Amino acid sequence: MTVVLMILEGFVLSGCAAQPPVPRAASSPAAPSRATSAPPAAAPPLAPGAAGPHQAEAQKPVDVYAADRPGMLSPVVKGFRSLVYVPNSESGTVDVIDPETYRIVRHFRVGALPQHVVPSWDLKTLWVNNNQGNFLTPIDPRTGKPGRPVPVEDPYNLYFSPDGKYAMVMAERNNQLDLRDPHSMRLLHSLSMPCRGINHGDFTADTSVFLASCEFSGHLVVLDWRTPRVIRRITLGGTSMPQDVKLSPDGTVFYVADMARHGVWLVDAATYKVIRFLPTGRGAHGLYVSRDSRLLYVSNRNEGSVSVVSFAKRKVMDVWRIPGGGSPDMGGVSADGTKLWLSGRYHGVVYVFDTRNGKVIRTIRVGAGPHGLAVYPQPGRYSLGHTGIFR
């Protein structure tokens, strides 16, 4: 069934529309002592007379990434071999890297223009998004081997609804969000977008709203994915080219990378109003959260660097530079939080950063045009998609 975007009474595309669900605000996490990431210390036992578990839970600050700590692997993935899956967009292939030896252990052909490798909601499958090939290639993460392709129109990127009911295909060239069965990929709903080039997104803390970026028209769209319907369009203006989207751990702010403006936008997650712009580096593109929920890693694709942003202070604390330059793009954080893996989009390599000191410890040669690599498995109860958004 196709859902046609309705222009509701009073709807204003520049930002004012029927009021969306409003997530609850919560207190911010503590400020980091330095721009590195390490597993948090275990909480001490309660002293006699201290608050009980129910009171402690009520007082505990919100952290949407609380299930993503080192060692918190789901029983579903505990038997999976740790591997890094690299889609090479220009080669039409996938390279599989052993993160212990940094060697390619498998190489196989997929379809035309593979963009991202996406963990399924139930954590049991990895999906290669063959954008021009118009199909998804499933990978069994137990073996690392590909399966039979599944026809899907224009799969630039892939997300999953928080309840696991829908696979949400970002059909970028068609300007649509296609809701599909998460297993068979049968089309259920198709939602036209009031913007061009929908590509990345994230959900509010209460999971009721999906904020997505439209890179070719400089917009963000606010979606009620259950209805489904567009409830607001936000114009960033100028020469904006929004890319990756990531919610702050306390659920109060969306961070949106902007490749043309060279930094990240901060958008209020309750009102959907732009708070301010934070410069990071040229070609700001991918966003990744440290395992302790304190830091945001921003890949600056056009200057060969990664900016380290403090969630508590909302400012850049450090910049990690690739010796000789590079093109860090999409990737993920290792399960233990000590490494950040990023594809080198224009250089045919993968970079491995040590998150404890910001140094590049490995550069691995892969196919042409590597893009949305997935580090798998990672901690978390379920996947919301992209290269690994876990909650």
From TrEMBL:
Family annotation (Gene3D superfamilies): YVTN repeat-like/Quinoprotein amine dehydrogenase
Low complexity: bias regions: 24-40
Domain YNCE-like beta-propeller: 82-373
InterPro entries reported in the protein's UniProt record: Host-pathogen_enzymatic-act, N2O_reductase_N, WD40/YVTN_repeat-like_dom_sf, YNCE-like_beta-prop
Region entry Disordered, spans: 22-58
Highest rank taxon of the organism: Bacteria
Record keywords: Signal
Protein name per UniProt: YNCE-like beta-propeller domain-containing protein
Organismal lineage: Bacteria, Bacillati, Actinomycetota, Actinomycetes, Streptosporangiales
